[in-house]
Specification:
By secondary structure, the chain is of the alpha/beta class. It is 47% helix and 15% strand. The N and C termini lie far apart (47 Å).
Length: 288
């Protein structure tokens, strides 16, 4: 685990792995609580990454012990507790609180799969495109610039060698005018440039592909670290789906939900199997 884990990503990994330990031990939460010397509400809180309560090393070790964790697992859980409140976005007022988990998950994910049906995803936006979006939201110029700076800072994760970004852009996202023709040309030029990077895959879903495999759903992002083996989740793996709604975000981490979105994304990739260069070039010519 070479990448620094911080903030909500640490909380999610703690919660998911404690649940995996409980499942491995074949125990009910009431029995885990009895063995750990705490209440069932405490155990439930440690297995819920959304809980705002601060976790302690002592209690996470006690719950892990109750589930039969080994020394390596206990030590790793303790390391994650130590960084549960770390992350630049937590102190940046330009990043809304509901987006803090997304920035944290991006910072540790090994795979980010994003489907965008209306707008270019934030990780691939140019500063001008991002600024035009924030200006359109009605905030003042200073706030729009601060939010743009925070969005561009998020893109630093793309410099990591262990991160692969896969994006399926619906054709409409390339033609929805943001900021005017000059901004759109520069944005499409940026997409053309970054798609040549070894860790970025961009595909375009044409109108002619028919109904998208995602159905009537909107944009979504699947963030993954680690995976599953025949014995269940790998230690400290992370899988979560992010859905951006109006003025808030929704996070799904239950396996049935994350599995469904992974299947949907794979199908979207198959639908968008054509040449992205020609699709990007065609869209760019509309803004000459």
């Amino acid at each position: 685990m070479g990448t620094t884990v911080a903030g909500p990503a640490a909380r999610l990994q703690i919660a998911q792995y404690l649940m995996a330990l409980q499942q491995r031990a074949g125990l009910r939460q009431t029995e885990v609580a009895r063995r750990a010397g705490c209440g069932t509400t405490t155990v439930a809180r440690y297995m819920d990454w959304r809980s705002p309560a601060r976790l302690t090393v002592h209690m996470v070790r006690s719950i892990a012990d109750a589930c039969g964790a080994n020394a390596v697992e206990r030590d790793r859980l303790a390391e994650l507790v130590a960084v549960q409140n770390d992350g630049w976005q937590l102190d940046d007022p330009s990043v809304p609180e509901w987006m803090d988990p997304l920035v944290s998950f991006e910072s540790v994910a090994e795979h980010i799969d994003a489907y965008a049906c209306t707008l270019v995803p934030g990780l691939l936006q140019t500063p001008e495109y991002a600024l035009a979006m924030h200006q359109a939201s009605g905030v003042d110029q200073n706030e729009a610039e601060r939010r743009t700076a925070a969005r561009i800072r998020r893109q630093e994760v793309l410099q990591r060698d262990d991160l692969h970004l896969s994006v399926v852009l619906a054709e409409g996202a390339l033609r929805w005018v943001v900021g005017g023709p000059d901004v759109m040309r520069a944005q499409i030029d940026h997409l053309m440039e970054v798609r040549s990077l070894p860790n970025i895959d961009i595909r375009v879903l044409p109108f002619t592909a028919g109904v998208p495999a995602a159905g009537s759903g909107g944009n979504f992002v699947v963030l993954r670290r680690g995976g599953r083996s025949d014995n269940g989740p790998e230690p400290f793996a992370l899988t979560v789906v992010y859905l951006e709604l109006h003025a808030r975000g929704l996070y799904l981490d239950a396996p049935p939900d994350t599995d469904a979105y992974r299947v949907a994304f794979s199908s979207l990739q198959d639908q968008a199997a054509g040449d992205p260069a020609s699709a990007l070039d065609a869209a760019r010519k509309e803004f000459q």
